[in-house]
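User: Hi! I'm working on a homework problem where we have to compare a predicted structure to a textbook description. Could you give me the structure for the chain below?
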Amino acid sequence: MTRSYAFAGLLLLSPMSVDSAQPVFPEYGDPKVVFDFFFADPRHISNGLHWIRSYMNPLLEEPYDLAPEFLDIVVVIHGTEIVTLAKHNYEKYRDSVERMRYYASLGVKFRVCGIAANDYDYDAETFYDFVDIVPSAMVEVAYWQQRGYGLVIPQMHEKRYTTDEIR
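Assistant: Happy to help. Predicted structure tokens:
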């Protein structure tokens, strides 16, 4: 039997499905996550916050219907986005600050790396009251991972095409 006939025979034996994909709703148990924010551009904080929204919203909606206090979310900040949490930069980053303040009101913990804060000459008075300063971002991320938190590192990509262009 030649290769082309063998391949054609495999296609005939393979079940071809004409059905559509089906949504599934896995049992996620006790969701807990640590987000590692380290962005090259402070404006990327907005995209990073979308990652938090994409994590939270499905769990707050049907069929999960979890209350925000049952989501355990920690955000560790140690890149250039640290400037968005400096009170003196409020006007420049108002939208992101207010989104973080809203998430904090839902129980999201925001942690700033003390080493990074020192690099920027920031102290505790620099930051908003919903921010905690921890000694080191690396130690903080490892701490939460050792307690079973999933690690999410948001990736910032340049969008080259609109959805309509590639649909």
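For your comparison, note the following. The domain at 29-154 is CATH 3.40.1260.10 (Hypothetical Protein Ychn; Chain: A,). DSSP finds six helices and five strands in the chain. Good luck with the assignment!
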